[in-house]
Amino acid sequence: MPSVAELGHVGLRCHDVSRQLAFYTEVLGLTVTDHDERLGIWFLSARPDTEHHELLLAEGRDAPVGIKLIQQVSFRCARFEDVLGFHRRFREHGVRLDMIVSHGNAVGVYFYDPEDNRCEVYWQTGFVARQPFVEHIDIETDPEELLDAIRVSVERHGATGFTEESYRAWTREQAMPADGATAKEVRQ
Question: Please, how many CA atoms are within 13 Å of residue 94, restricted to the half-sphere of its CB?
């Protein structure tokens, strides 16, 4: 049976490609590897020497900003210090943050791009934790103290997973269509 090796890239349609391009290159530091202005597409990569593109930006978004199209697009960082650096950079650039959490197996900073697509930068902790595991953290805590606290939390909840009530409420809210119908009513 054939198998997928890994997720290669994600493509986002945009209202304003130039604004999105500036965000993903200047704030996230991705590299434009190719583009075709006639077609309105730009290819970006965090690893241009090994992966031609991990993100494609394309003109032509016709859904209004605020419509729930994407749950999240996540970018893995090699070091915890990178996540800390992005958190500082997001604050400097006025990037709207969503949440800063431990997933037990990762530390993530969730944020919104200029067109309200929810994204995440994360670092894998090396700990094993059943998902979902969402515990809000103060990322400005001393890094060693923070990682010790995450280790203790994983020892306590890693086998079962963990979600704070605020996250469970947020998840239920996100599943609701804009008209207030329940997700089950919409599927029927």
Answer: 1
